[in-house]
Specification:
By secondary structure, the protein is an alpha/beta fold. Helices cover 29% and strands 24% of the residues. Its EC number is 4.3.99.3.
């Protein structure tokens, strides 16, 4: 990558775009909503069960001008979801400002491990044990979505719930490959602890991206 492009990436005026697609939001509070997803490459959080590991290496994904990303996004939906990878690896200020100028609702799905940048209508925080969220993301999250892979994740979920703001909606979501085992455990846990809700990856049941 040449120096000029690197400077634009560092400013968030270009971003390593892995893919962009129009689909139905399958998870969390906005499940069932038509949304345009912008998947940004780059992540060093390293969840072993990640289903988009090809997003981790930002160098594999071409730096793309954010004006082009915004132009594509506004053709499809009023709701834009920025995901990754870990989108907060990059400065999200320029991209989200342009999206908001177009009158769009801008959501993020993040581990919260990096500085919170950007202008957001909805922050979905999905924390990971390997790299915990920043205080600012805890304070601003609209929903907390903890992935349940094994029983220790219930302990972790409670630790995380104690750190978010009082209005944050709490979700437990089964890791897809373990769903047959952990779904009954999540159901029992939510019934015993009704401050939590169940989140399912409904897009996978619908067989859509």
């Amino acid at each position: 990558m040449n120096k000029e492009i690197q400077e634009l990436v560092d400013k968030g005026e270009m971003l390593p775009l892995m893919e962009e697609f129009y689909t139905i939001q399958g998870e969390g509070f906005h499940k069932g909503t038509a949304a345009y997803f912008i998947r940004v490459g780059g992540c060093d959080v390293g969840c072993h069960w990640c289903d988009v590991k090809e997003s981790w290496n930002a160098d594999l994904h071409p730096p793309t001008d954010i004006a082009k990303i915004v132009e594509n996004a506004k053709k499809y939906s009023d709701t834009i979801v920025i995901t990754g990878g870990e989108p907060l690896t990059w400065d999200m200020t320029a991209l989200t400002t342009q999206l908001k100028t177009e009158g769009l609702q801008v959501h993020i799905e993040t581990s919260g491990a990096y500085k919170l940048t950007g202008v957001w209508d909805w922050i979905c925080l999905s924390p990971k044990k390997m790299k915990l969220p920043t205080k600012e993301v805890y304070e601003n999250a609209h929903e907390l979505k903890v992935i349940v892979y094994n029983k220790d994740d219930f302990r972790f979920a409670e630790e995380q719930a104690a750190k978010v703001n009082k209005d944050c909606i709490l979700y437990l979501q089964p890791e897809w490959s373990k769903r047959d085992k952990v779904v009954p455990e999540i159901v029992d846990y939510v019934m015993a602890n009704p401050k939590w809700k169940v989140s399912l990856q409904t897009h996978k049941y619908l067989n859509i991206p």
